[in-house]
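Consider the tokenized backbone below.
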């Protein structure tokens, strides 16, 4: 169960070092996001902190960033009514309900922002924890890209495209 001391709020500039610690570890693990392992802090920042209408949110407990998500239009123009979301929780804070809370928060935020649906573009097939979580939150797999992801830069595995209406 999520601790009541955990606050989910919009990213502020002085959150960046804490966000980078989370993002850096996930990127370097090379098993859940396609972001290139070894990315610099500036590259990581450009990947995670996107210009408006993109938004970044953080989960903070006692001043420490435990997790983060970003949300924004998945595509431009005539397809910009579908949101995209991305989520990361620090290894030390995983398994406490934070991932679920961040995703639920992002779904509510996406509704507030007027999006009609949420899409995840590349959920790695071996990321079974995330897949179970997203499916329990109402997402369905709408497609699979065979061998679309190089796990740790090596073995090719499938990734799934997930979708749910809001
Ligand atoms: C995926 C991720 C965001 C989930 O965050 P989290 O805070 O660990 O998730 P939760 O604590 O809400 O747990 C989610 C589910 O996983 C289960 N779970 C938690 N820890 C687990 C573990 N060590 N092994 C297996 N299952 C586990 C929980 O039981 C929970 O299921 P439930 O809600 O039905 O009980 C997090 O693991 C993460 O940041 N992973 C790396 C980046 C990533 O994969 N992002 C998503 C890309 S699509």
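A designed sequence for it:
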């Amino acid at each position: 169960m999520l601790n009541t001391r955990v606050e989910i709020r919009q990213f502020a500039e002085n959150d960046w070092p804490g966000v980078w610690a989370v993002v850096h570890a996930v990127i370097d693990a090379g098993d859940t996001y396609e972001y290139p392992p070894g990315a610099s802090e500036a590259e990581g920042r450009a990947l995670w902190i996107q210009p408006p209408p993109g938004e970044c949110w953080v989960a903070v407990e006692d001043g420490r960033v435990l997790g983060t998500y970003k949300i924004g239009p998945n595509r431009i123009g005539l397809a910009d009514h579908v949101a995209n979301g991305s989520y990361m929780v620090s290894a030390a804070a995983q398994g406490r309900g934070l991932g679920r809370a961040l995703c639920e928060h992002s779904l509510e935020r996406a509704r507030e922002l007027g999006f009609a649906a949420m899409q995840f573009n590349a959920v790695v097939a071996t990321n079974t924890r995330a897949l179970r979580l997203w499916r329990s939150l109402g997402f369905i797999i709408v497609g699979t890209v065979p061998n679309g992801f190089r796990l740790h830069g090596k073995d090719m595995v499938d990734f799934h495209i997930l979708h749910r209406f809001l």
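The pocket of coenzyme A is lined by residues 26, 32, 87-89, 94-100, 120, 123, 127, 129-130, 133, 136 (CB under 6 Å).
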